[in-house]
Amino acid sequence: MGRIRSAHGLHGEVTVDVLTDSPERFRQGSALYLRRSGGNPAPVRVQMSRPHGRYLILKLEAAETRTDAEQLKAGELVIPKSDVKALPPGHYYPFQLVGCEVVDSSGKSVGTVADIMQTAGGALLGVKSQRREVLIPMVEGIVTRLDLAERRIEVHLPAGLMEINA
Fold first, then answer.
1. Which domains does the chain have, with CATH numbers?
2. Which member of 8, 82, 89, 160 lies 3.0 to 4.6 Å from 13 by CB, making a disulfide possible if both were Cys?
3. Res. 166: pLDDT tops 70
4. pLDDT in the model for residue 50
5. pTM to 2 decimals?
């Protein structure tokens, strides 16, 4: 739902990239889960929320000082899967793609989706292989098949894309 970018101010506030179509989930009093890198999600409550340009400023009960807030950087704010709204067929949530195998049009493995990045030009799949990370645009013509049940994404890689990511 959201990724913590950085500490904001002196009183434990953080800036958050909103990665959901339901920003109302960040309202004051909302119960969320905070997942720090590699850890299990821990419950946390939103004490304050306000817009700040493209981001939100949140005050979470887990942070009282700037030092506390700095410890939350890169943490993810999530909800239980049971609270996720169903989407129409052919639609997906970014978190559902993480861990999917990515293969090229010949069936050769490119790697596994490690991250989804939102850019001004659209979403990018951050695909990790054993040697490197490859950024693949999530656009029609490049992503040719997405099968969540099989946890597999087929792509048609344009000439030069792999070399750009080298």
1. 2-81 (2.40.30.60), 94-164 (2.30.30.240)
2. 8
3. no
4. 92
5. 0.62
